[in-house]
Each structure stands twice: as structure tokens, then as C-alpha cells.
Amino acid sequence: MRFVTMVRCFALFFILVCVNKALCLRSSCEAQQEPAAQQEAAGCGCESLKRPAAAVEPVEGRTGSGDPAVKYSRDSNERMHEAQGQEKKLLSRMVLISGGEFLMGTDNPGIPPDGEGPQRLVHVDSFYMDIQEVTNRQFQSFVSSSGYVTEAEKFGDSFVYEGILSETVKSQITQAVAAAPWWLPVKGANWRHPEGPDSNITERLDHPVLHVSWADAVAYCSWANKRLPTEAEWEYACRAGLKDRLYPWGNKLTPKGQHYANLWQGDFPNHNSGEDGYVKTSPVMSFPANGFGLYDMVGNAWEWTSDWWTVHHTTDRQHNPKGPLSGTDKVKKGGSYMCHKSYCYRYRCAARSQNTPDSSASNLGFRCVSEEQQ
Ligand SMILES: *[C@@H]1O[C@H](CO)[C@@H](O)[C@H](O)[C@H]1NC(C)=O
Ligand SMILES: [Ca+2]
Ligand SMILES: [Ca+2]
């Protein structure tokens, strides 16, 4: 048993090192490369879900100088004001997050290469935050009133964890992600069809919407007169006033034996026991809220933030930091139902991961914030 685990760890480590090397050859990640990649750095492999450059079909408005999300949101806002009062938006309830100072990041990083540290003093102003991840029902209301088409729908595929795919769908797939073979690009997978064409969301309308790219998330939030949270806002909200704690509720993963988040129990990636009640996503708000009244801040679906990714942070005191001015990846927070300590110890407030903005996957969603109650 122990030997098998060691072999698996070694194999993963080896694959990870190779993939890191290969990616660094053609990108600017030298600066981010860590001398000693750890086994945990493989994570759930979600950060390797990049669309291969050769396979990317040009999508109108996607490339070039214009930012499709900003352009889209402007159009949508105009439409929305014209149609004011006609459409009943199904928006999430929000809570006021009173601004203040907090310690962001950690000096005891669970996954050092992710840039979880150093711990630093950050001030954020007050804002309102959705108490829940955006659901399929809410996203559907956005799509039916705006006609929005997601990036996964335009691309024609999205990444799905193989453990939740039907045999029919699986048998049609040949390409896989080298670093994380449990991720498969599935034709026809998108928010309406989370596990491909033979799946639907009819019985999951109150689950988090999945397979949304960063631009899709921005478009939704704009439609709702909201925006994505910065990483600092998200982490401040996650911590809910607790200092130096791992999780939104404290340091114990399962206080009194109770599950506080939809995560993975069992042997990743082969067996999910579903001890917390769910092997896939759960309806939002199925687990206890944190001290600020926010649900599923860790677990269920990963959540996009507005920040570009970097692993280098200043220790100077920051006021409403917004991350780097540019980058190749966006920061996502909170981990998902696929996170297990052995592979993806990222269901902590300080934990973070990244994806290219056009990525979409079966464990990635979002929630919005705003300056005013919507
Ligand atoms: C949606 O999926 C369910 C199984 O989860 C199936 O019973 C149902 O027929 C599907 N509905 C449609 C419209 O495809
Ligand atoms: Ca679970
Ligand atoms: Ca979440």
C-alpha cells in the first residue's frame, strides 16, 4: 500500500517536472518556476487545462486588441437599461462585507509553488458579495435574456473529469492531458451539458454553473450590475474575520465529524466515496455558511477572481490590491468537489490556482460582488 503510494507520487513528480519544463520552453514562466516542485504541486491538474494552441479556432472577438468581455458587458448593460423592469433577474442574495485589514496568504504554505506566501497585511474596502456560487438557474436567466453564448459553446468542447463521464462519451475521446490524465476534453460539454451531450442540468438548476470561462463569468456579473471579486476581496471574505485559520470555519477540516464543504473523500482520482453526500457538485448552500454568511467558499466549484496570476507578492501593506496589470492566467480560489488533501490541498482560504482565461472545466464556476446591494 505504502509502496504503491510512493510509486504513484514519484510518477506524478516526474510527469510534473517534465510538463513544467516543456511549458517553460515556450512561455515566460521561468520566473515562476520553483526549484523543488513538490508532489502536491500536481494538484488536481486543473491548471494544465490549457486549450492547445494549434487546436484553437479563431473565434470572433476573442483575439486582438478588443476585450470581448468588456465590449459584451457594455452592450448588455445598454440592453438591460432599455429593458428595465421587463426581465426579472434571478440574482443571488448578497451580504455586506465590511471593509477592514487582514492577513492575506500564509507563511506556512500548503503548496509553496502556488505563491500562497508570504503572509501580508492587506486592507479592502466594504463591498457586497453573493452568498452563493452562481447557479445554473441564474446563468440560464442571464442567457435567456441576453442571448449570451459561452466560450465552451463556441469552442465546441470543455474539460470534464473522466470519473463522471458515461462510457459512451469516454469511448469517443482520444486526446488527454499528459500531466493529469483524468481530465478529458469532451466535445459538446458546456454549461448546459456538464458531462457532454448525453447530460443535462434539468435536475441541477440549483448547482453551481460550470464550464464558464473567465470572460463568461465577467459577462454574467456585468449583466447583474456586479463584477468578479479581486483575489484579496475573495480571501478576506473567505476568512470571515478569523485570523490565521486554514478554512472559512477554523482549522479542523471536519469539526465534530461534520463536513463543512463539498470535497473529495477517498482515493483520488480513482474512488470518491462521497462521504460528504456528493461525488459531483452539490446544490449551492448545502453546507454551513461561514461567519460572514457566505456558502461554499471552499469546495463545490472553484471560483474565478478578477486578478491576473503571479506568485510574487510584496510584503508592503496594500490597499485594495488588484493583482498584476497583465498576465497569461487568472487566479481562481477555493478548490472544488474534486479536491483531496493528497493531490489538491487547495480548499483553504490562502490556497490559489490559475487557469488561462479561456479555460473551462467541470469544476470551475464563480460568484460576483458589487459596491452596492443589487
Ligand atoms: C436529462 O437527464 C436526465 C438524467 O439525469 C434524463 O432522465 C432526462 O431525460 C434528460 N432530459 C433531457 C431533456 O434530455
Ligand atoms: Ca464530495
Ligand atoms: Ca466554491
Describe the structure.
With 374 residues, the chain is α+β, with helices and mostly antiparallel strands. The protein has helices spanning 2-25, 68-82, 136-146, 151-155, 167-171, 214-223, 231-239; strands spanning 94-97, 100-104, 120-124, 127-130, 157-161, 183-187, 266-267, 271-272, 302-308, 318-319, 330-333, 353-355, 364-365, 369-370. It has a domain at 94-148 and 207-370: paralog of FGE (formylglycine-generating enzyme) (Alpha-Beta Complex). It has 7 helices and 14 strands. The strands form 5 sheets. A 4-stranded mixed beta sheet has the order 12-11-9-13. The protein has a 3-stranded antiparallel beta sheet with strand order 1-4-14, with no helix packed on it. A 3-stranded mixed beta sheet has the order 2-3-10, with helices on one face. Helix 2 (68-82) runs parallel beside helix 6 (214-223). The longest helix is centred in the first third of the chain and has 24 residues, at 2-25. Mean pLDDT is 83; it is low at 1-42 and 53-86. Residues 133, 296-297, 299-301, 303, 334 line the site of one calcium ion.
Instruction: Name the CATH architecture of the domain at 94-148 and 207-370.
Output: Alpha-Beta Complex
What topology, given as strand order, has the largest sheet?
Answer: 12-11-9-13
Described by the principal axes of the CA atoms, the overall outline is: globular
Question: Strand portion, in percent?
Answer: 5-15%
Q: How many strands appear in the DSSP assignment?
A: 14
Given helix and strand content, the structural type is alpha+beta
Unreliable stretches = 1-42, 53-86
In DSSP terms (H or I, runs of 4 or more residues), the helix count works out at 7
What's the overall average pLDDT, rounded?
83
Bound molecules: 2-acetamido-2-deoxy-beta-D-glucopyranose, calcium ion
Summarize the amount of helix as a percent range.
10-25%
Largest beta sheet, briefly? 4 strands, mixed
Pfam family, one: FGE-sulfatase
EC number: 1.8.3.7
GO cellular component, one term: endoplasmic reticulum lumen
Domain Sulfatase-modifying factor enzyme-like: 93-369
